[in-house]
Amino acid sequence: MVAAIKRYLPYLLAGVMFGFVLVKGEAASWYRIQEMFHFQSFHMFGIMASAIVTGLVSVQIIGLLGRKHSLDGQAIEIPLKPSGKANYIYGGLTFGIGWGLIGLCPGPVFALAGMGSIGALAVLAGALHGTWLYGALKDKVPH
Question: Is residue 67 part of a domain?
Answer without folding.
Answer: yes
